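Changelog excerpt

This revision adds worked examples to the README so contributors can see how folded entries look when concatenated. The first example is reproduced verbatim below.
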Amino acid sequence: FSFSPLLSLGCTVKYSGYLGNWSKLFCSNGNSKYPRLMKLGKDITLWGLEIGLLSMTKGEAALFILTPEYAYGQRGCPPSIPPNATVLFKVEVLDFIDSEECDAFFELTYEQQDGLPLEKVLKVAATEKEFGNYFFYKQRFRIAKDRYKRALSILGCKSSSQAEQSQINASKLLLFLNLSLTYLKLECADQALKYGELALEMDQGNAKALFRCGQACLYMREYSKSRDFLARAQCIQPFNHDINNELKKLARYYKEYMEMEKEMCCQMFDPLNSYG
């Protein structure tokens, strides 16, 4: 059995492995809220488990009984797995992400990449974005940021028509928004603002981009700029709770800032007044 065709397939799986009649648990990741992305043939190497996973679809749960030749063989895996053990696995597939096309794309020269059909390029970029989303929700923001940037690098291709450029720009817009949010999570407000403004260059009325820019400016204490961005976002989506709450936060922070400025001024002039 060759694992090579499977090496590009990543999956997130909740699993529990048992010995006997479901009586002895020997491995599990069931307590993990965000199971890590694993590659078949690399992180998951039990032959029977791989065959079973490849028969499943996203969201499906299954029970597998693996005889020794499909599991740990004659030797077992001491001390947890005895020789010639039949094991039972309870699994749930949360997601599948196939990186084969991405891996193949980055093995090409720049000239070869430019020669690919746009449909293929967009698909590779979308897969990279999926990886970024996965790591974002796992709160591994630096890896997510790198994946989003990798997707952007794929979209640097030349377009042959306005229609193709529109497709490229639509994909770029989503990545700019994702990068802006990711940089906010990384507390890099200047970069969050940069990517928010790049999104606005493509869509001046994008409420999400305006909101991200407003958040970034608020973080940097640029209150006037923050108010401008957030007010524009509110005009587009007047009942958006996130936007309205951010404006309330801005008002509170600005009030605190002004009170602090007033107190500093009083402290500066009080010594002069004392010599009246």
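The second example, added in the same revision:
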Amino acid sequence: VVCLVAYHIFFMLFVWSYWKTIFTLPMNPSKEFHLSYSDKESLEREPRGESQQEVLRRAAKDLPIYTRTMSGAIRYCDRCHLVKPDRCHHCSVCDKCILKMDHHCPWVNNCVGFSNYKFFLLFLAYSLLYCLFIAATDLQYFIKFWTNGLPDTQAKFHIMFLFFAAAMFSVSLSSLFGYHCWLVSKNKSTLEVFRAPIFRHRTDKNGFSLGFSKNLRQVFGDEKKYWLLPVFSSLGDGCSFPTCLVNQDPELASTPGGLNSSSKNENHLFPAKPLRDSQSHLLTDTPSWSETTAKAEKGKVGMSNPALTMENET
């Protein structure tokens, strides 16, 4: 009876999470990231290069973006005509920009991103548990099959096939699930593993990592009662994310962007804009520099918005 109840629970959770992974539409950037009609016209009129980047700088000056292209330019999608939010990428299969895109999964025929990444993780977890449960309950009959302890019927083939299928899927799912658990612990996506995010001064592969506990809450949320259920509970809006770049020494808090004469800290800048309300509580235990101090040092730094100032492309 217990095994039968456990079987149905695993199966229901597996189907539920699989359904949510498939039919949850990936989130696209909000309207504020799309260029206005006048900005689109200006972008089309200007020649490629610094002139276009100046248009994009004006469009992105009030947006919470901190990552750049490899050349240091504003990340812009010329197919969707929008400034890309951090961790957003254009999917060539779906032909649209996906917030916090991890990968396009052919097994679910959908993009795995901010809106359904938790469902995808639960789908892997419950699939693995389901396969392990099937393999464990079928093991005793599989042993009898090899010791000729079963009657010679067609059931022998079914038992052998079921055990091998469950065992092989368990091995493949365990490796995939373990990999994504590692990604969650580091607050990375599959795309960010292959190409680390580029911030203003350098590439930082751990730029979005806040520590194991906070990284876990980024995906599963603050309410632990929802962690094992395929209901959306991830933190944030998918457009802005807290970064470890604000986790600076308290003595550096009085200097905008953490700029000082030490080369050790010159590459770690404070974000020029405050985090959104949905994300800022993750970093309440970390001192951050004030906007008034930034204004006081505006002349020293030589830029009104250091996180959005772009380096000239070579």
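Reviewer comment on example two: The CA atoms of residues 179 and 190 lie 9 Å apart. The longest helix spans residues 155-186.
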